[in-house]
Design goal:
Length: 306
Amino acid sequence: MNIVKASIHFQKSSRVLTVKVPSFVLRTSVFVRVVLVIGFILFVVQMLSTTVYDGALNHAFSSRQKLNKELSQIQSTVDYISNTSKDFFSAEKMLHAKLGLPLPDEASRNLSTGGHIALDVQLLRNTSPVFERTAQMHEDVWRIFGKIQNNEKSFDALTKYIDQNRSVLRYIPSISPTSGRYASAFGPRIHPVTGEIGKMHQGIDIANDRWTPVYAPADGVIEISQLSSSFGNFIVLNHGNGIKTRYGHLQLSAVTPGQFIHRYQILGYMGNTGRSVGPHLHYEVWLNNRPVNPLPYILPNDYVVD
């Protein structure tokens, strides 16, 4: 066995230590050093890889959060458009009913608003929540567009009818005569002053503060503007074609008999005159000399046939 002598000199001393070491030990130490160097290099590579991976992961997470926020904003817009279109279709349906036109066909309106989904697209949607969400929003948008497109003929027909009958529609009540809370409905009730049970209430009551403006719901001519023992300051507006509207308990009348009135013109102001228990407007609609429910003559969301 080969022996290697190694001398160790101590600093600031004359002592010398001689050590005999087998040669294979020195060769082994070189191997250990190589292993340590390689291990250090691998450690540095691992640290760099981890840092880069964490950075990429954080960037991807931030991008995902930003994308989710943008998708949520888009979804809110789609929901708003969907709800608005539903309100529009409901208003259109009410206009058809009010004008005596055939109601829109719901089945035809919903035609061509769906479609076949390819298998590869379906697989991608099932494995990617983001893709599924965007695909669903895309379908919702096209569904709304399809409904509007399929209903285009109905829109055109309604618009054409209104244009042709604009002069007549000016005289049909179509807005609420005032703002406030609906306090009493049309039909039998217990009279709030006399207590009479089953007394027919020939209109609706809209309650609000005294001096709230009362507007004409359509064009017409003032037939009556006088003080009544039961209705206080009382107005009757004749719209022609057998339609009249009546207004009771006004604080003040702003019109005179024979005066021509336009829709939205102020007739007077809400009050508490006559047999009344609080400030409100008593509003009636008469058709061919009999009272009818005024609510069908009030279009929703401030729409007006003009």
